[in-house]
Specification:
about 55 residues; Alpha-Beta Plaits; 4 strands
């Protein structure tokens, strides 16, 4: 199951650099995770300073 970024995202970009498969990209207004690319590693979850990433 992939992760998703919720509305509490502050668009800081920290999570994007932590994704080993480049599944995270900037969006308007928040970052998004491509569920087809996400490998469920969880690196982004621990990197997010506002806990905006959760299981989809």
């Amino acid at each position: 199951m992939a992760y998703k970024i919720n509305d509490t995202c502050i668009a800081c970009g920290t999570c994007e650099g932590e994704c080993p498969v480049s599944a995270i990209s900037s969006g308007d207004p928040i970052y998004t995770i491509d569920p087809e690319k996400c490998t469920d590693c969880g690196n982004c979850v621990s990197a997010c300073p506002v806990s905006a990433i959760e299981k989809a």
